[in-house]
Amino acid sequence: MLGKESNPKTYEIKEFLNRNLADFLYFDVDDDPEAQPYIEKHNLQKSKYPVLVFEDGYLLDDPDLFLVASAIGLHCIPKSDTYDLIIVGMGPAGLASAIYAGSEGLKTLVIEKHSPGGRAGSTSLIENLIAHPDGITGKEFSERSRKQAEKFGVEFVLPVVLTDIVKGEDSFTVSISSNVSISGRSVIIAVGVRYRLLQVSGVEKYLGSGIYYGSAMTEGKRNEGKEVFVVGGANSAGQAAMYFSRFAQKVNLVVRGESISLKMSRYLVDEIANRPNITVMTQSEVVAVHGEGKLESLEIRDSQSGQTTTYPADSLFLLIGGQPYADGLASRILRDPNGFIVTGPDLEKHERFSSEWPITRSPFYLETNIPGIFAIGDVRAGTAKRMAAAIGDGANAVNQVADYFTSQKL
User: Mean pLDDT over residues 242-262, rounded?
Assistant: First the structure.
């Protein structure tokens, strides 16, 4: 792959290839002399970067992710028109549901907008997951889970997004961004959350060229010997700080709270304290970003003193809470004030429940206000926002899908 670090699309495709376990080499056409032989051999002097060069000479010039996925052999179109279960989202919750559904013989389709694992898939090392005493990387967890589901006949389609769900008499019509509609007897929503946007002017100018949402593991080597900033006070930010400390000369962990121990697991707090090139900046927030074409510096304000200091910065990684994905979800699916999907007993407390719940039985614990549509993992209101909790939701949801099927026959 040939690209320019100043082009956000370069990062987007690098991250997509990495997260989907594609083997590739990357060369920056502006800084890497090893890029020149490829440019000359394939006459790429006037190409629009990024460019993917395959071993057989096939070229993709400035492609979108759907073209990239097709070229590396990912399945982008469902093989069938009808399924027992359609799972939307491929994070830990969706993967757990896929494994259990497949093992129970349900014809199951999983659709995913980007790559296996969701936010967990970008984690450098998960150390508190049961049965993994030495830890496991997010990529390893995601790929092993996917293979386990495929062993049971589960089908995966990506990168596509849900565009609509329409309830029929005894099934749902699910439309996806590849202009395909499929039918499912039941649907599980496991779309997770996205990192909250940093409300600082100019951030969008540097997305993919110095500023990144998530830990962006493809950027580790690029930051060797440099100074990076990580914003966030929960486990994902702590894990990112630990990962980049392996490459960067200095990692600054910027936290709005008084201590990282408020939201971060104790083992991570201790590991960060013992890593000499990580500095924790508490009661601090980024208030401005600067640069010509890419991030070069940022301003951080100390909320105690009110003083603002400018720091040179090579990279800024933002891991600041989560907003639930809403893409393509029917507007009539009930949510709480923060946008998380309300399910089960909490539905019956919702002011719109009596007008929205159409049948006599009570909703199952993970069921939304639309019978047969379930919500699991971080997108569901009231969850612990932990990986193990999401996996538990995924397993439980399949049992409740079976109960729904049984209720349909009564």
Answer: 96
Is residue 185 within a helix (H) or strand (E), and if so which, with residue range? strand 180-189
pTM above 0.85, yes or no: yes
Label residue 5 by pLDDT band (50, 70, 90).
confident
- Please confirm whether the linkage preceding 159 is cis (ω < 30° from 0): yes
From residue 255, give the alpha-carbon distance in Å to each of 155, 252, 390.
Answer: 41, 10, 25
pLDDT of 123 above 90: no
Helix H or strand E encompassing 176:
strand 172-176
Long-range contacts of 271-275 (CB under 8 A, 24+ apart): 271/238, 271/242, 272/238, 272/241, 272/242, 275/241, 275/242, 275/245, 275/251
pLDDT at residue 55 above 70? Answer: yes
254 alpha-carbon distance from chain centroid: 21
**Cα–Cα distance measured from residue 256 to residue 231, given in angstroms and rounded to the nearest whole number:** 9
Cis peptide before 50 (omega within 30 of 0): yes
Task: Convert the pLDDT of each residue in 344-368 to its tens digit.
Answer: 999 999 999 999 999 999 999 999 9
Average pLDDT over residues 94-113: 98
Please state the φ and ψ torsions of residue 370, each to the nearest 5 degrees.
Answer: -105, 105
Cα 96 from Cα 90, distance rounded (Å): 9
Q: Amino acid identity of 46?
A: K
